[in-house]
Amino acid sequence: MANFTLDTDADGIALITWDMPGRSMNVITLEVMEELGAIVDKVTSDETIKGAVVTSGKDAFCGGADLTMLERMGDLYAKMMKNDGEEAAAKFIFDESRKLSQLYRRIEKGGVEKSGKDAKPGKPWVCALNGTAMGGGFELALACHHRVAADNPKTRLGLPEIKIGLFPGAGGTQRVARMMQPADALQLLLKGDQLKTDRAKAMKLIDNVVPQADLIKTAKDWIKAGGKAEAPWDVKGFRLPGGPVYSKAGMMTFPAANAIYRRETYDNYPAARAILQVVYEGLQLDMDAALRVESRWFAKILRSPEAAAMIRTLFVNMQDLNKGARRPANEPPTDLKKIGVVGAGFMGAGIAQVSAAAGLQVVLIDRDQETADKGKAALHKSLSDRVMKGRMKGAERDTILEKITPSADYATLKDCELIIEAVFEDRKVKSDVIAKIQAVISDTAIFASNTSTLPITSLAAEFKDPQRFIGVHFFSPVAVMLLTEVIMGKETGNRALAVALDYIRAIRKTPIVVNDSRGFYANRCVLNYIQEGHLMLMEGIPPALVENAARMAGMPVGPLSLNDETALDLGLKIVRATEADLGPAAVNPGMKKLLEDLVEKHGRMGRKNGKGFYDYAPGQPKKLWPGLADLLPKKLSREEVEALDVEELKQRLLVTQAVEAARTFEEKVVTDVREADVGSILGFGFAPFSGGTLSYIDMMGTKKFVALCQKFEKKYGKRFAPPKLLIDMAENNDSFYGRFAPAKKKEAA
Fold first, then answer.
1. Is the N end or the C end of the chain the one with fewer CB atoms within 10 Å?
2. Does residue 589 have a cis bond before it (omega within 30 degrees)?
3. Catalytic site residue 473?
4. Which domains are seen in the chain, by residue range?
5. Which of 145, 146, 380, 473 is catalytic?
6. For residues 156 and 194, is the Cβ–Cβ distance under 8 A?
7. Which tens digits make up the pLDDT trace of 70-84?
């Protein structure tokens, strides 16, 4: 076998070691399923084998299913729908998607297919988890009769399928709901949390945690001690931990869970709704019937446009970008050791933190030693807070801080291989910093600007070698946000791009590569979103409705909340910088005045000073500022508010972002559909269920989307005007992923 080895010891216990060649982590593929099925047959039929232990030959156990397999299954389903009809296609996807569930059920039954007096006794299976197990890999563990995990602080266990628009479809929903209280099971399934081993044991998802050296011995000892090949729910008299669904306890769980689901998701995620359904139905049935219910719903969700879009963007596309899909193939790999960060404020300190956490030496520069030291001190406090909350070890914090050297001496940057400026979004300030850096930078080092909106080409004009000048735009907070936007100036060279992408890979962020433009890609889209919220306010729409409509549309936060997070004074600086460079017609005067009133008249800078569109009282939930109404030119009556079309408000907030994304694609700011979609979700939280801005258009259909844009243009103004590219695509019934499908695959190692 290519992926497994099977060794039977003198006690008749088979050790099955999963170690896929050429991969850093085991994943479930069709080949793996076939081989594991053959192993189950072998263990079952070989009378010398008394039981089986399954483990991994890698540092981790399993990363889950190879979702390209599911993507291909969806493609085959679509072809069968066209050629063979709906019934044949539905049967195909049900049968195929159920194979893993059936395989795991065979393991759970100890290989026994028959029941009754003449049935042979099953053989026990133990899962020896030597590291992280996710998704279908953890479902394999749950199907085994006993689970032992190595005591490794890096190990994470979980069922994260909900994060890509799916749910556990190999028995996970039914087993966890029989292992713990249903409310806890639903929380685990709906959040997709990753558990440490101690928490998983406390939740009774695993049975034991032992030192790595004792893992296999402990697993085998359980079998030798008489471990039985039966799951608790297959034993007569089994009682659900939370009692029957139709009981007092059950009625306290499921109605509340349904209400919470709707409050948190606004019914945008079919997979989340399906989880509630399959747990509710499954707990009323025996395990085999429950698994059939799970499989039916899994097949249904797998056919949904939301699942297809999320799998494509949040797994396939993201994987491509993380592996270097946009890295110049002819550039040799770089191995950075030391970088410089100029600007010890919130952003600069965050960049220093993630860089030091990746093992890089960091020089943190600011205007004077005191300010540089304050930047490191603030970082120390932030990391110490994490230590106090148990989210980080003290030794890890100390290791990070030891790698950061604060300084006011630009000469300390001379041996840095990459220098990132992260100073104020002010052209003059950046010009001064560029001049100081280029006086000391080595002839081979790369210079990167963390500018949010200022065009890279214009900044690079002040640098001695524009080929070594590139934009590397981080999102706030740096330690949390997964996206980094790489901006190519007109003269940026391939080596600068390669170094930037190697650096981003080292700090474990996902990159998108865009061409130069004011605001680049992410900020162009997100500023449209914030602006639309402002314009709604000025139309008299209540701020609470603006915020709630955004949440209902699928955005993680409303446009006003987001503006507070990014800082209102920064927003005002961006508006004024745009006006200075492009003229008064380039900015909305109403938006400018609103920001001026908030920032300059009322000192409301956003969350950073506790005052923005919201008030932020320590230890209390944020509340909309009552004085906001006095700054607005119009206020709707109660009757007018009640007459508003909420669906239209939701659409406005999404369409304004999606149409801007289409413009950036037409202008070749973004040249890869994968980057547009991944960037929109990771960068500014664009409705994840849609798969991203361009997938949102594809899901709606270009004809329908263009018609909606034209309707909004007529009603609200030119900002909704569809670009020529979209109009042409609508006429030809094209989609972005149909017309601009990325080539597979040309990456660096």
1. C
2. no
3. yes
4. 4-303 (3.90.226.10), 338-520 (3.40.50.720), 523-668+672-739 (1.10.1040.50)
5. 473
6. yes
7. 888 888 888 888 899
